[in-house]
Design a protein that fits this description.
Helices cover 46% and strands 15% of the residues. With 252 residues, the chain is α/β, with parallel strands linked by helices. The structure holds NADPH dihydro-nicotinamide-adenine-dinucleotide phosphate.
Length: 252
Amino acid sequence: MSDLKGRVAIVTGGNGGIGLGMARGLAMAGARVVVAGRNAQKSEAAVKDLTARGADACAMVADVTDPAAVQRLVQSTLDRFGRLDVLVNNAGTNIRKPVHELALEEWHQVLDTNLTSAFLCSKAVYPAFKNAGGGKVINIGSMMSLFGASFAPAYGASKGGIVQLTKSMAVAWARDNIQVNAVLPGWIDTDLTRQAREQVPGLHDNVLRRTPAGRWGEIDDMAGVAVFLAGPGSDFVTGTAIPVDGGYAIQG
Ligand code: NDP
């Protein structure tokens, strides 16, 4: 059920944080993994991390907000590996300001990186998935897909949008045997949230207090759900949004 041998996965933003945690999971389950990001050095370090674990992995430089770069990423993956089975739309960013202070360019930057990129990448992989008789798209949402935060208007809009985009793609592509699901991580220790803890007073302790598991998540906590949603165990699971949050979302 969790054997990914022979499968090929692209993980956007797979060069660090949650993307790397998921890439590790996919690789350990036998998939060949392409980590895609803008920072070539960071991507090479991630490939080293993966190959040290025995994985077949490579890095491709791509800005997922650029439609031409996305097309190149998909074509290069097909050229290199001859197939493509899994897309993880994980690349993301945040600009923490209340809505009345957020500039239009900042709004676009967050929406383009977090939401439009998922549209572009999913659309780009669709022909390969359809021709192969199926595929898996895993979109990364957030607790902000469910809740509001004063400091995350664009981020919250993008992550709410991810859940609805997931449902639309799931319905559209179900007959092509393509499953599309979202993962909603809780608070995971990454570069993104290290920055958040510097910018949002009290965040670290508030997360600890509210998370029933009593801890921040680690990137390796994201591996299992990636393997499940990428593998045959989830062939009848589509359009869902699965929290991986130590219980944060169900705390009363
Ligand atoms: P990181 O900042 O560690 O990782 C973000 C990754 O996205 C980087 O590897 C970065 O690589 C890549 N990226 C950003 N912009 C682009 C772009 N334009 N093109 C290609 N790659 C890009 O953060 P996280 O690991 O925390 O976040 C990963 C995802 O998880 C995001 O979607 C985030 O919103 C989501 N998330 C995170 C949570 C957390 O607690 N950490 C909670 C809920 C959701 P590079 O700089 O090389 O381009």
